[in-house]
Amino acid sequence: MIAFPSKLCSVEYGHPAEIRVALKFVTPEMVIRWRCEGDIKVMEMAKRAKKFAPPEARASCSICSAIPPKTGEFWKGGDLQGSSMPAATAKLEIVGWPYFTDSTSSSNRCIKRCPECGGVYLWETEYDYLVNGSEDDITMTRLSDAEVKKAVKNVLAAVEAAKKHFLEESQVHVMVLEQSTDADLLYKAAFFFDYHQRVLYEDISFAVPALVTALLAHIHKAEKCLAGSFLQMPLRAFMEISAGNEDQIKAMLAAHLEADLPPEASELYHYLPSSKSRDYWAGKMNKS
Asked: What does each C-alpha distance from 158 to 38, 51, 114, 267 come to in angstroms?
């Protein structure tokens, strides 16, 4: 019996361009502790998770028929040693994405589901850092019906807990944005929402008014400052998601155009998202 653990994602605070994500695994009974949490469409994922594939369906599936019950590949120093996994494995979907990923930057595991027949697999990688070349041992095993139900249950439990905790943490950060002028606290709040929007593709629209308030009220000089730049980042990304979001931000800023706007606010008001950025967000939002 495979004991499939829940996965948590913690972020070491730093510059967004240098975000380092550490993956940890815990049992469902453990208290879920995150420094950054997120949200996906839990009900939709739950609906998909119920579509398990019976043996006869796998045999006729164009994807699963090309994947053996157990497969894998071994990498050393960035070079593949021996044969690779079947190309069909690339068509499998990760259950619980983006909280669960198939990143090989550290030891990791997730479950993957076939979009055609519903077959489910356990994907695992063991990462070893070695001076003469790091090693990645990747395996993927088809799960039995009993194993599938337990694995999916744990994933959905982790996602639901993350959603609840994200909303709780968000309240604290919104309060900071609305009431504080401390540059360090504003930076952390802005980074929190920027990370959840850019990395976990969550809806942060409820925090937008507070982010705009903080951007307009933060202590600034004629030149841009670090706090203002970080407050601008989640708002820029929010504007890139849709034309409606862009109009919302600019309408909020337009009411203050006669005042001495911080340079970051003025820059944001004149920002024009590209069609490429709109297409990028459309693809990510549809996937989540």
From this structure: 10, 19, 21, 39
Token digits of residue 20: 């380092």
* Structure token digits, residue 222: 């004629």
Co-location of 251 and 188 in the same domain: yes
Contact in structure between 116 and 63 (CB atoms under 8 Å): yes
Considering only 75-89, 125-139, 189-203, 235-249, which range has the smallest mean pLDDT?
125-139
Instruction: Give bridge partners of residue 79 from the DSSP assignment.
Output: 76
Within 13 Å and on the Cβ side, how many CA atoms surround 234? 32
Q: What average pLDDT does this structure show over 186-206?
A: 91
- Helices then strands, counting H and E runs in the chain, come out as 9, 8
From residue 62, how far is each of 67, 88, 117, 125, 287 by CA, in Å?
9, 8, 9, 25, 22
Enclosing domain of residue 279 = 180-287
Q: How confident is the model at residue 287 (pLDDT cuts 50, 70, 90)?
A: low
Residue type, 129: Y
10: left (phi over 0), alpha (psi -120 to 50) or beta: beta
Torsion of the alpha carbons at 217, 175, 14 and 269, rounded to the nearest 10: -40
Amino acid identity at 76: K
Confidence (pLDDT) at 39: 32
Asked if residue 212 and residue 125 are part of one domain, the reply reads no
pLDDT in tens, 54-77: 555 566 899 999 999 998 888 887
Structural domain includes residue 173: no
How many domains are contained in the chain? 2
Q: What is the spatial distance between Cα 189 and Cα 177, in angstroms, rounded to a whole number?
A: 7
Q: Using N-to-C axis directions, what is the helix angle for 226-241 and 243-254, rounded to 10°?
A: 140
Same domain, 61 and 98: yes
